[in-house]
Request: fold
Amino acid sequence: MRRLFGTSVVLFLVAGGVAAQDAAPPPAVAVVEVRATDVTPATSFTGRIEAVDKVELIARVEGFLEAIPFTEGSIVDEGDLLFAIEKGPYEARLGEVDADIAAAEAELTLARLEVDRQTTLVQRQAAAQAVLDQATAFAGKAEAELLRAQASRARAELDLSYTDIRAPFTGRIGRAAASVGDFLSPQTGTLATLVSQDPMYVTFPITERELLDVRRQAAEAGFDESAVTVRVRLADETVYDEVGTLNFVDVQVDPGTDTVAVRAQVPNPNGTLIDQQLVTAMVEIAAPEQALLVPQQATLVDQGGRFVLVVGDDDTVEQRPITVGRTIDGSFIVTQGLEAGERVITEGIQRVRPGMVVDPAPAAGS
Reply:
C-alpha cells in the first residue's frame, strides 16, 4: 500500500511539472518590420584615402634643435612654428655680410670719386687717359664687390629664415623624429609629416570595362561623369556621412593590372578619414530605387544559406531562406525571400526555434 502511494505522488509531481512547463509564457523577442527604402545602385571598389596636401618636413640648414613648439598629432595652422634651429651662427654671419657691404660701399664711393678726379684732369690734359681707364676699372670692380656682398646678404637672410621650420599649410602633424638638442642637417631626413585634413581624396583602381560602363550609365542618366557621386564605406561597414565627387581619371591604363586610377574628393570636416586608410569606394550612378532592407544581426547562416526568423500574424516563428545583395548602413538589401511589412527577429534569436510562439516587441530605434 505504501509503495502504490509513493508511485501516485511521483506521478502527480511529474504531471504538475509538465503543466507548469506548458503554462510558461512565450519567450520575448525584438522584431523589426521590413520596409521598402529608396536605395541608390552602386558599384564598389577597394580604395585608399589620400591627403590632398602632404609634406615631409626636413631641415634645410645645419644646427642644433632648440625647440619643438607643437603637440604631436594636433592640428597646426599655416605658418605655425614647428621646429626651431639655433639662430646664433646665422645671425653672426648676417652681421659679417652687413660689414662687408659697408666696406664695399665705401670702396665704391672712393673709386667713383677717383674716376671723377681723373676725368677732370684728362679734360685739362693734366693726366693721361690710361690713368682714367684704370680708375674706371677699379670703380667697376668695387661695384661688382658690392653686388657680391649684397647677394651674400640675401643668402644669409635666407639661411637665417630656414632656422624656423613652419607649417606650409593647415593640417595634422605627425610624430617628431628628432628631440631638442639634436644636431640637424638636410641629411637628417624627415623630421615630421604634415597632412591636410579637409577635404580628402579617395583613389581606387577601376577596369577599363567598368570605366566604359560608368560613362555609358552616366550618359543614359543624362549627366556628366564628373557629377557621379562616390560614397565611402569604412572598415566597420558603416557608410561615411559625406558624399564625394569624381575629380580625376588617369590618362593611361596600367598595363600590369589593366586598370585606370580614379580619384574622388570627399569632405572631411571631422577628421574621420585618415591618410592611407583602406576603404570601399561606392560609385553611385543611377537614380534611387526601392529595395527591402533587413538588419545584418537578424540574419543567420547554415548549410542551406542565409536565412531569417519571421514572426507571423499569429506570433509563430518561421525560418525563411533569403537572398541578399550589398550592405547599406549595417543592413542587407534583400533580393528574395521577404516582403514589405513582414516582421523579422533581431534580438532573442538564440531563445527560439521554428514553430514556437513568441512575444514580439518592436526593436529599439525601429
Observations:
- Residues 1-15 have pLDDT under 50 and may be disordered.
